[in-house]
Amino acid sequence: MADEPATNTTAAQSQPSAVPLGGSVIPLVNKLQDIFAQLGSQSTIELPQVAVVGSQSSGKSSVLEALVGRDFLPRGNDICTRRPLVLQLLQTKTDEEYGEFLHLPGKRFYDFSEIRREIQAQTDKEAGGNKGVSDKQIRLKIFSPHVLDITLVDLPGITKVPVGEQPADIEARIRTMIMSYIKQPSCLILAVTPANSDLANSDALQIAGIADPDGYRTIGIITKLDIMDRGTDARNLLLGKVIPLRLGYVGVVNRSQEDIMFNRSIKDALVAEEKFFRSRPVYNGLADRCGVPQLAKKLNQILVQHIKAILPGLKSRISSALVSVAKEHASYGEITESKAGQGALLLNILSKYSEAFSSMVEGKNEEMSTSELSGGARIHYIFQSIFVKSLEEVDPCEDLTDDDIRTAIQNATGPKSALFVPDVPFEVLIRRQIARLLDPSLQCARFIYDELMKISHHCLVNELQRFPVLRKRMDEVIGNFLREGLEPSETMIGHIIEMEMDYINTSHPNFIGGSKAVEIALQQIKSSKVPLPITRHKDGVEPDKAPSSERSLKSRAILARQVNGIMADQGVRPTVEVEKVAPAGNTSGSSWGISSIFGGSDNRVPAGKESVTNKPFSEPVQNVEHAFAMIHLREPPTILRPSESHSEQENVEIAVTKLLLRSYYDIVRKNIEDSIPKAVMHFLVNPELYYFLLICSTN
């Protein structure tokens, strides 16, 4: 029957000398395998084992059941093994036979048909009920007095055509799964090939040759010897004359599907196998290469020798891992169970963290790198070498063309004004340039924020390794705290820029002033050989050689602009004459602009009044309708732009405006270079941060 125990014809009595060594070494390796199996992918130590590979329906399952002497594997017409089955055979001194699953610790299965059902249930649970496959292991131990100590891994059979829920690349997936086992140097390969197929086309030998090209770890199993064509035999195969293997071949005769259907016991199958080899003279002299008992003995011997060969290296790897784990364990410190002790430990950790953060920002940390900048040095570098230098390299006029400035100047000239008033275009343009300082200032604050976050990660004390939840919580608290500091920093930076834009302090002692700007502009244009109208005094003295008071008047005269093609003031009027013409109490916006930049009052006669005063005659205008044709004005275009050519007067005005812009921008830049780092330090790099966690811990 299916549950009838096997007789003593199995390998348990074949090699008594191999049992003591195998009985002491293999179970120890099995225990390690169980432990590492629970660790999953975290284990980096590969233990010795035997992997059984072969194509679908090659007889792998029948070989395993013959080694156990029991029916316990699922059967079917399609793929049977759909999850790796790690089978540990353990020889016992009692007559009890039972199985245990690693996922059901403590539960013994004395009925092997229940083992089959459990394997089937776990396979369907993980791989589905419609021929799917999974690489998740099932681990089964079988205790029996009729087995030798062996650990085998039954892997899914190599298939070509997907069935059921199997994906189209099922063959590639199964081959990848098999390779993950047999590529390890610690794994022996049991390559199963049916005798009624061409050995040169064996899938098992082909994949084993890839994983073990030298053949030191591969054992060949030839199955189905009883159904070979008449007149053929497997003698040359078993002797290794077709495809040689260093560990050789073993031939077996399994139960047929008809035997399984009629519940032919494995005991009867082993007797029939022995009779088959004894009745075939061709296999005489190959007793050590034929039969399941010889296979069990050979596997036990090779596995023990394999363990002995790799045991020194395995011991070394385990010792190294133990040292590493011991160091990690020691770093965790002692276990604190009392609430008071836990509170003190937490306070100590937070205190060390705060001190480490503070010392790193202040540059006093003893563990700081000597090969690169870190901590507070990086913050100082951002302020001085990135922020300040970037602002110093900016020319406020680099994004302004001469046409832009000329357009701004003409837009500032109203219909009632004949004067070039530098205040209006200057203030419009300088505000635009000041606004450009906002983005780099905000970026500087963001750089400092990022550096503080890096510092918080680098100064984690060793004690925090014990408490990953606390470390995660500290990261969250510090991140929130720094973000709360970044927000007012950015707000303050915006206010600083807005304040500079709201009040243009042309009275600043470092500001160049209008008169000085005109003089410098004249010198620049003269040196660049741009022709200027030369105005001489009555005594023949040139303007450059005139007294300083006269040059000041010349500077003011430059400000007179043409209105409708007529120069409002063609010469330099004496101050007394201007005062006589100007009406008392004139406080127009144009006069304010001149006085603010040039540092004094400058009242000029409007162009319209001056033209009326200097009119040479005042006869009534004759009726011109009969003398001339009707004159029609063109519609003004939608967009008006200045002419492309620059007059000499406009060149001076542009040069003056650029000088004013550069002078005042330099003042604002220095203010920003000083104020922005102060704002960032005050709101973001705050000393209170160093003690923030301590305050939180006490609360």
Description:
- The chain is an alpha/beta fold and 699 residues long.
- The chain folds into 2 domains: 294 residues, Rossmann fold (3-Layer(aba) Sandwich); 226 residues, Up-down Bundle (Four Helix Bundle (Hemerythrin (Met), subunit A)).
- Helices cover 49% and strands 7% of the residues.
- It is built from 22 helices and 10 strands.
- Helix 6 links the parallel strand 7 and strand 8.
- Helix 14 packs antiparallel against helix 15.
- The longest helix has 40 residues.
- The chain is elongated and about 135 Å long.
- The N terminus is likely disordered.
- Pfam families: Dynamin_M (PF01031), Dynamin_N (PF00350), GED (PF02212).
- This is Dynamin-type G domain-containing protein.
- It comes from Citrus sinensis (Sweet orange).
- GO terms for molecular function: GTP binding; GTPase activity.
- InterPro entries: Dynamin (IPR022812), Dynamin_GTPase (IPR001401), Dynamin_GTPase_CS (IPR019762), Dynamin_N (IPR045063), Dynamin_stalk (IPR000375), G_DYNAMIN_dom (IPR030381), GED (IPR003130), GED_dom (IPR020850).
